[in-house]
């Protein structure tokens, strides 16, 4: 894994003017992808378009289809969340599409603790040079995943709590890829009320439940969308108010202060409308355990 902090310092020192940074970082990304390819089985090839670098074990025709979709999806996402886009991105987006689950999980395991994730259809890795990875070379399998993960890439510059990042992304994915419409029925309400406790909801606010190997992962994604829909108030909340909330929410308090400032109520009230009375407000995350002095 490259020393990205050292690379950033080197780029700043060698290229004081940011005008060249996009091409500089794109070239760094190409070199890095070639190093990744060396550690994978034969058959992986680097493909490129105007905004994307794609490493995949597939044909040129299929790679061209994927790149065209990525470019089209990019335009759709930018149109959907104009107020949330970063002012400037340096370097092309990087997508790694693996031939099978073995290659996929072998690659992403370096970014997660053992057992710290359930089954994944794809992931945006916001570390070092932010990039996304998917386990399938079949276009029909990753159309929605690419839209989802590309939206994560555009939101990565914001200090969003995980639940809000996922909720925004799910809504954009539906708008762009026309998949996974939000729904709420009696069975889902029953499952939420059976599952959530005050301890588990604390894990939801601070992101732990999204990595749960049980049904907590599925219910976390659904609860995130429920809260966002509640804040939208059926479309009656002005877009400028929603954008203000998105731009001021912070992961440290799960967006609680921003919700109170913008909407006049805490996030726990949204959850209570689904789960009933309880202490559902975000609490400070538990303190990290001190390092063992004897180690």
Radius of gyration: 20 Å
Number of separate strands: 5
Low-pLDDT ranges: none
Helix content: 40-55%
Query: Remind me, CATH topology of the largest domain?
Result: Glutaredoxin
CATH class category of the largest domain: Alpha Beta
Textual characterization of the structure:
By secondary structure, the chain is α/β, with parallel strands linked by helices. It folds into two domains: 4-157, 3-Layer(aba) Sandwich (Glutaredoxin), CATH 3.40.30; 186-275, no CATH class. Helices cover 52% and strands 7% of the residues. The chain has twelve helices and five strands. It has helices spanning 4-14, 21-38, 60-80, 101-108, 139-155, 162-177, 186-195, 198-205, 216-232, 239-248, 256-263, 267-275, and strands spanning 45-48, 52-56, 93-97, 123-125, 131-134. A five-stranded mixed sheet has the order 1-2-3-5-4, sandwiched between helices. Helix 3 (60-80) crosses helix 5 (139-155) and helix 5 (139-155) crosses helix 6 (162-177). The chain is globular, with a radius of gyration of 20 Å. The mean pLDDT is 89.
Name the descriptors.
single chain; alpha/beta; 12 helices; 5 strands
Q: Summed up, what is this model?
A:
The chain folds into 2 domains: 4-157, Glutaredoxin; 186-275, no CATH class. The two termini are 25 Å apart.
Detail the topology: elements first, then pairings.
Elements: H1 4-14, H2 21-38, E1 45-48, E2 52-56, H3 60-80, E3 93-97, H4 101-108, E4 123-125, E5 131-134, H5 139-155, H6 162-177, H7 186-195, H8 198-205, H9 216-232, H10 239-248, H11 256-263, H12 267-275
Helix pairs in contact: 3-5, 3-6, 5-6, 6-9, 10-11
């Amino acid at each position: 894994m490259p020393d990205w902090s050292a690379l950033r310092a080197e780029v700043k020192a060698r290229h004081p003017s940011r005008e060249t940074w996009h091409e500089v970082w794109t070239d760094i990304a190409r070199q890095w992808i070639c190093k990744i390819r060396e550690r994978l089985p034969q058959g992986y090839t680097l493909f490129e378009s105007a905004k994307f670098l794609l490493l995949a074990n597939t044909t040129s025709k299929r790679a061209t289809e994927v790149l065209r979709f990525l470019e089209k999806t990019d335009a759709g996402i930018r149109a959907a969340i104009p107020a949330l886009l970063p002012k400037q991105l340096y370097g092309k987006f990087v997508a790694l599409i693996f031939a099978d689950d073995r290659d996929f999980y072998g690659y992403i395991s370096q970014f997660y603790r053992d057992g710290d994730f359930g089954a994944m259809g794809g992931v945006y890795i916001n570390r070092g040079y932010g990039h996304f990875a998917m386990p399938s070379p079949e276009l029909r399998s990753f159309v929605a995943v690419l839209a989802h993960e590309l939206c994560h890439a555009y939101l990565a510059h914001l200090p969003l709590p995980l639940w809000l990042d996922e909720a925004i992304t799910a809504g954009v994915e539906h708008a762009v890829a026309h998949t996974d419409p939000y729904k709420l029925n009696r069975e889902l309400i029953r499952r939420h009320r059976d599952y959530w406790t005050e301890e588990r909801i604390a894990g939801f606010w601070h992101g732990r439940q999204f990595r749960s190997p049980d049904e907590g992962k599925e219910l976390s994604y659904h609860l995130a969308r429920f809260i966002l829909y509640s804040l939208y108030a059926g479309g009656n909340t002005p877009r400028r108010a929603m954008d203000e909330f998105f731009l001021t929410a912070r992961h440290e308090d799960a967006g609680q202060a921003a919700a109170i400032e913008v909407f006049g109520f805490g996030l726990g009230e949204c959850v209570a409308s689904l789960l009933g009375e309880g202490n559902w407000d975000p609490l400070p995350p538990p303190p990290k355990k001190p390092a063992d002095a004897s180690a």
